[in-house]
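User: Predict the structure for this protein chain, please.
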Amino acid sequence: MKRIYSVLVENRSGVLCKVAGLFWRRCFNIDSLAVGETMDKTVSNMTIVSSGDQRTLEQIEKQLNKKLDVIKVKTFEESESISRELVLVKIHYNRTNRKDIMENCDIMHADIVDLSKNQMTIQLCDTPERVQIFLDTLKTVSIVEIARTGTLALLKCSQTS
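Assistant: Here is the predicted structure, written as structure tokens:
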């Protein structure tokens, strides 16, 4: 079972380390972690995706709420949220596979953001599942490098009051 934690924290050095340490000490798994400032520069938002049984997921929420630097913790299931992930993929291409790669990009709504004689960098922003599907379609080509963000998520509008 997976759960998404949207955690508002004080934007200070060491806060990320404290939160990650909580997961490490308790042997909780972090599937994904993304951190960024909010509109208030003194506050950051951590989006943490974790998996485990019901008891573990409830324990994570309780432990996060105990941290002094944590302002607010919201938890929600994947089905209740809009989730996005960004991936940049640098690949080698040649005359024979270039058209197939471009067709895959078109189908998945990915953008070619950099191009040279034999390499291209592709960008895709989509759900974590569709990002993985896209990466699977590229397994037939020579992938040079991948940079992938963690999941960002917000509650669906129909879920908020």
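The chain has four helices and nine strands.
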